[in-house]
TrEMBL record:
It catalyses: beta-D-glucose 1-phosphate = beta-D-glucose 6-phosphate. Its cofactor is Mg(2+). One of its GO terms (molecular function) is metal ion binding. It comes from Saccharothrix texasensis. Belongs to the HAD-like hydrolase superfamily. CbbY/CbbZ/Gph/YieH family. This is Beta-phosphoglucomutase. Keywords: Carbohydrate metabolism, Hydrolase, Isomerase, Magnesium, Metal-binding, Phosphoprotein. It is an enzyme of class 5 (isomerase). It comes from the Bacteria. Its EC number is 5.4.2.6. InterPro entries: B-phosphoglucomutase_hydrolase, Beta-PGM-like, HAD-like_sf, HAD-SF_hydro_IA, HAD_sf, PGP-like_dom2.
Amino acid sequence: MALGLPDAITACLFDLDGVLTSTAVVHRRAWRRTFDEFLRPRGEPPFTEADYLEHVDGRPRYDGVREFLTSRGITLPEGEPDDPPDADTVHGVGNRKNDLLEAIIRHEGVTPYPGTAPYLRAVQARGLSIGVVTSSANARKVLDAAGLSPFVQVLVDGVVIGRDGLKGKPAPDSFLAGARLLGVSPEHAAVFEDALAGVAAGRAGGFGHVVGVDRTGQREALRAHGADVVVEDLAELL
């Protein structure tokens, strides 16, 4: 099993935030501030780590807003994609989070995890195809800032998901789209995910191997959602 993958695997589909780059932490900060500022005037308890993992992590931005607010019994009008960030709509709340995220990335930059570049170089050297599949609409900026764009042959991000009307994770649509663009069938592609919704999407899509990347101490939950193997960093697969 070269690269920690079955021999039949010819393509790798990586989630971005929390798998290749540490931006999952930045997303979490932006979500917490956005929701806390929304919840506080309504007398609601603050947004928690459990809220993030269960309702937001790995999902497209507006799906995350809907899922979390529904869990609190709050319903907002959908609004429009260009709603201002102070609008009390699903799109407005999502846009506030995105503005905060972009500001953090501008000021703090993006750092890949230690094992990311070595693993991507090894995958590339073996001749396997590389795609990134992420719910983030900021993926191109993150990949460029982290110096990872040269490795990536195909990108399915939040922009593509919205444009093509794909269902977000835990549905497998975005990963299946990535496999199609790389010209491989799911059984010959491996999915790398840190989010429970993403691992579930990899399993639901019939992919040949699903790697759970445990950055937050949820090893057993990743396995329960369908990971074939769980690592703390991609370097463990080398």
